[in-house]
C-alpha cells in the first residue's frame, strides 16, 4: 500500500512542479506591458493543474485512510515515519508547495499593482480628480476633448 501512496506522491510532486513552472511563466507575462495575449492559456492550464492536484490530494487522503491513518498533514507525517521513501517524497513535495505559494503571492501582488495603476489611469482619463466641479464628471470624448457626463 505504501508503494501506491509513494506513486501518488511522485505524481503529485510532478504536477506541482508543472504548476510552479507555470506560475513563473505567468509572472513573466505579468511583467510585460501587454500580457493579455499570454494570460488566457496560462489561466486555462492553471485551472487544469489545480483540478488535478485536488484529485491527487483526495486520492492520497483515501490511501492514508486505507492504511488506517488520518488524512492530510498528520497522516503523511505518520506514513513517512514508517517509510523513508515516503518521508523523502513528502519533504520534496512540501518544498515545491512553498515555492509555488511564494510565486502565487508574488503574482497576486503584481496583479493588484496593475489593477491599481489601471484604476488610477481611468480616473485621470475620466477627470475624476477634478471632475466634481459643478457636480458633473468629465471624460474624453471621441474627438479627444473633455466633455461632461
Q: Quick recap of the structure?
A:
This protein is mostly helical and 149 residues long.
Query: How many beta-strand elements?
Result: 2
Instruction: Give the proportion of residues in helices.
Output: over 70%
Number of helices: 4
Q: Between the first and last Cα atoms, what is the distance in angstroms?
A: 69 Å
Mean pLDDT equals: 89
| Low-confidence residue ranges | none
InterPro entries: FlgN-like (IPR007809), FlgN-like_sf (IPR036679)
GO biological process, one term: bacterial-type flagellum assembly
Function: Required for the efficient initiation of filament assembly.
Organism: Trinickia symbiotica
Topology summary:
Layout: H1 2-31, H2 39-66, H3 72-81, H4 84-126, E1 138-140, E2 146-148
Antiparallel strand pairs: 1-2
Your description of this structure?
The mean pLDDT is 89. This protein is rod-shaped. It has a single domain, classed as Methane Monooxygenase Hydroxylase, Chain G, domain 1 (Up-down Bundle). By secondary structure, it is mainly alpha-helical. The protein contains 4 helices and 2 strands. The protein has a two-stranded antiparallel sheet with strand order 1-2.
List keywords for this structure.
flagellum; Methane Monooxygenase Hydroxylase, Chain G, domain 1; FlgN-like_sf; 4% strand; 74% helix; mainly alpha; two-stranded antiparallel sheet; 2 strands; cilium; 149 residues
